[in-house]
């Protein structure tokens, strides 16, 4: 458990460290170092879990099993690569006068605060603390969304604050109902412990749990960005600093989905019905289709890709909702490849917006001619996220389709329709931005595109072949979630 | 349903649940901001009473701590902070004209019925007091949301947000004698940070749109201009 404690301690120290020293010249590099160490710790933790199975800390406050350790590594990895991207990006924003020293301190301090909240959501064994950490993540990112202090960004942050705060309050009501159901058989202090709940799921009252799950799905669903609770997401993504969009899309949405899936595991244990799964499938499919249509009418490049995030989160929620081992495996794979691809896209989108000095799609033109690396990065990233072979997103979407055909064949046409519409929506907007004539007076910016390349190479690799250890890892997580192996 | 056969604790909690819901309705119809904040503090005080009674009846000392935290946060700090902002931004004379007060109140009433309906399935295996108290706290949560929908001032939104927290806290206290201490402390910390952040946002909003009317924040939308 030592790496897990260190993993929580380091970002916690980081909050205070950057609050004090966040204005220094090499602060970007310090942030990279912090995140590199947490990445190392997460890998250490993963090796531990690999060797000895589920880890439970002495007082049972923390639990690490194959499901959450995989998300911890993913969180640490995307957090690390995004910090590489954010160093020159933030330096540029400071150079052009959009940020002051004080805001830069706030930015780096809250970056660590956000990472801390994410690790706490993932490692805690207490469903109540999970809620607290989720709310803390909202509070940490609210300040980041309004970092530029423009009227738009303040409006976006306010919307985000209110909508997510109210939404996630529903999840707390669900947690209280769960706690009430659990106090019937367990003593008060342990009644919210995941390990206790999961072992005694059969004893929980199914009726109370079904009501509780509806509240949890609405609450955490607001954070996942499920339609019709998604309104905050495009605003927050488009108005905040771009590195924040990358971690919000790549990490926060995943971790909210993680909370829902944990709760679904309880409900499935307590009831014999598939009600939790049906609810998730309905919400997921609705989000998937609505977001695909919205992709067609976007004028802002960051809003475009945030709708794409809603679409993919909808697909994952749908796949977890189907609940067969095969679908769960596909959903886990999709979580990984979506996080990697989406954060890579936001890195290139950030640079594209810096080159053009605007986020308006109509004004960004000829990226390949201005700065080929950014142009190609955006194009390849879009190819990957739209689900073209041989990228990993194709594999996982294909697996989701197969799983749907096995269990609910009549839903496949809807999925195919959504994928097609989304693909068209992405390309009609991205094509002219990447190709075309280069507008006057656009200069290349200082950019570090290593994160993009690393992410896209991994996604490509996952599309061509899934390495054995990763397949085993996903299989273990699948067994944990749905009870049996996928193949 | 024989009220006189219940013990004193249950009777008191039921009365307090009714009073907490009543304060939610008063807030819903309130057009003056200072009075709104005062009623909110009153609701917090009912909560403190309920928690103290629960702590005394079940001899559960940790509930005294949560009562003290609620007193400090929801009865003293947050209303004080909101009051200071209202006075500083010179909004204490503003009356918010609620054009559709009747339909809002009727909507509120139907939300109470709805909460009873939603929680009805758990009736078989729980006491009457629990069903009533849980349903009413869900009603307080939903009424808080309605308050946010029907009012335009950012301050009213914060009051709605915080009264949602009150409803959650009441539910936790009556249904299970309070959540585990670590969770309660965490939630209290979140509420405190949220309150401070709201204060910061008031300043930014009022400097960017020159008022706290959130209806004027309409730059971001999906509709073609």
From TrEMBL, chain A:
Its main location: membrane. The keyword Transport does not apply. Keywords: Cell membrane, Membrane, Oxidoreductase, Transmembrane, Transmembrane helix. Signal peptide: none annotated. Pfam families: Proton_antipo_M. It is a multi-pass membrane protein. The chain crosses the membrane at residues 6-22, 34-57, 69-92, 104-122, 128-148, 160-182, 208-229, 273-295, 315-337, 374-395, 407-427, 448-470. This is Hydrogenase 4 subunit F. It comes from Methyloprofundus sedimenti.
From TrEMBL, chain B:
It is found in: Cell membrane. Keywords: Cell membrane, Lyase, Membrane, Transmembrane, Transmembrane helix. The keyword Hydrolase does not apply. InterPro entries: HyfE-like. The keyword Amino-acid biosynthesis does not apply. The chain crosses the membrane at residues 12-29, 36-57, 63-82, 103-123, 129-147, 154-175, 187-209. GO terms for molecular function: lyase activity. Its main location: membrane. GO terms for cellular component: plasma membrane. It is a multi-pass membrane protein. PANTHER family: HYDROGENASE-4 COMPONENT E. This is Formate hydrogenlyase. It comes from Methyloprofundus sedimenti.
């Amino acid at each position: 458990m030592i790496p897990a404690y260190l993993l929580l301690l380091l970002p916690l120290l980081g909050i205070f460290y950057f609050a004090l020293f966040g204005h220094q010249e090499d602060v970007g590099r310090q942030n990279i170092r912090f995140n590199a160490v947490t990445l190392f710790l997460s890998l250490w933790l993963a090796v531990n879990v690999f060797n000895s199975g589920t880890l439970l800390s002495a007082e049972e406050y923390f639990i690490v099993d194959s499901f959450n350790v995989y998300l911890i590594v993913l969180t640490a990895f995307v957090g690390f690569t995004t910090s590489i991207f954010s160093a020159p990006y933030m330096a540029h924003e400071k150079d052009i006068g959009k940020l002051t020293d004080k805001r830069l301190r706030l930015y780096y301090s809250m970056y660590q605060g956000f990472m801390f909240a994410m690790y706490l959501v993932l490692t805690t064994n207490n469903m109540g603390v999970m809620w607290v950490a989720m709310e803390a993540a909202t509070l940490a990112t609210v300040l980041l969304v309004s970092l530029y202090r423009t009227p738009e960004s303040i409006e976006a942050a306010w919307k985000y604050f209110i909508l997510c705060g109210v939404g996630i309050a529903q999840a707390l009501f669900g947690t209280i109902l769960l706690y009430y159901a659990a106090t019937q058989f367990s003593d008060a202090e342990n009644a919210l412990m995941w390990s206790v709940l999961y072992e005694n799921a059969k004893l929980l009252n199914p009726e109370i749990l079904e009501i509780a799950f509806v509240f949890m799905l609405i609450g955490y669903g607001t954070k996942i960005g499920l339609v019709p609770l998604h309104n905050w997401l495009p605003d927050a993504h488009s108005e905040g600093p771009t590195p924040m969009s990358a971690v919000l899309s790549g990490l926060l949405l995943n971790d909210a989905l993680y909370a829902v899936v944990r709760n679904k595991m309880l409900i499935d244990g307590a009831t014999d019905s598939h009600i939790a799964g049906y609810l998730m499938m309905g919400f997921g499919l609705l989000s998937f289709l609505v977001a695909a249509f919205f992709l067609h009418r976007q004028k802002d490049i960051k809003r475009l890709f945030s709708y794409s995030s809603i679409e993919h989160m909808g697909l994952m929620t749908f796949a977890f909702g189907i609940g067969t081992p095969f679908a769960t495996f596909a959903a886990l794979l999709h979580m990984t490849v979506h996080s990697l691809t989406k954060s890579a896209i936001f890195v290139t989108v950030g640079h594209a917006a810096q080159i053009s000095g605007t986020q308006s799609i109509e004004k960004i033109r000829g990226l390949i001619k201005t700065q080929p690396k950014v142009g190609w990065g955006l194009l390849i990233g879009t190819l990957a996220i739209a689900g073209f072979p041989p990228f990993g997103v194709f594999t996982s979407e294909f697996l989701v389709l197969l799983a749907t055909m096995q269990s609910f064949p009549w839903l496949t046409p809807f999925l195919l329709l959504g994928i097609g519409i989304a693909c068209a929506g992405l390309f009609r907007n991205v094509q002219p931005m990447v190709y075309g004539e280069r507008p006057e007076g656009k200069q290349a910016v200082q950019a570090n595109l290593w994160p993009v390349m690393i992410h896209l190479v991994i996604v490509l690799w996952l599309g061509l072949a899934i390495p054995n250890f990763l397949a085993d890892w996903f299989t273990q997580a699948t067994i944990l979630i749905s009870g049996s192996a996928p193949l | 349903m024989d009220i006189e056969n219940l013990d004193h604790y249950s009777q008191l909690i039921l009365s307090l649940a009714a009073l907490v819901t009543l304060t939610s309705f008063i807030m819903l119809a309130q057009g003056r901001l200072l009075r709104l904040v005062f009623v909110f503090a009153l609701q917090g005080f009912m909560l403190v009473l309920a928690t103290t009674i629960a702590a005394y009846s079940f001899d559960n000392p940790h509930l005294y701590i949560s009562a003290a935290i609620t007193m400090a946060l929801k009865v003293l700090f947050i209303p004080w902070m909101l009051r200071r902002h209202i006075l500083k931004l010179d909004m204490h004379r503003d009356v918010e004209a609620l054009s559709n007060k009747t339909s809002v109140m009727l909507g509120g009433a139907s939300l109470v019925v709805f909460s009873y309906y939603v929680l009805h399935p758990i009736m078989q295996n729980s006491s009457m007091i629990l069903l009533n108290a849980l349903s009413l706290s869900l009603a307080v949560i939903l009424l808080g949301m309605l308050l946010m929908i029907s009012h335009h001032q950012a301050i009213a939104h914060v009051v709605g947000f915080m009264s949602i927290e009150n409803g959650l806290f009441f539910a936790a206290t009556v249904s299970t004698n309070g959540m585990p201490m670590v969770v309660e402390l965490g939630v209290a910390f979140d509420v405190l940070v949220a309150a401070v952040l709201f204060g910061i946002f008031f300043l930014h909003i009022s400097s960017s749109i020159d008022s706290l009317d959130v209806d004027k924040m309409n730059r971001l939308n999906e509709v073609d201009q």
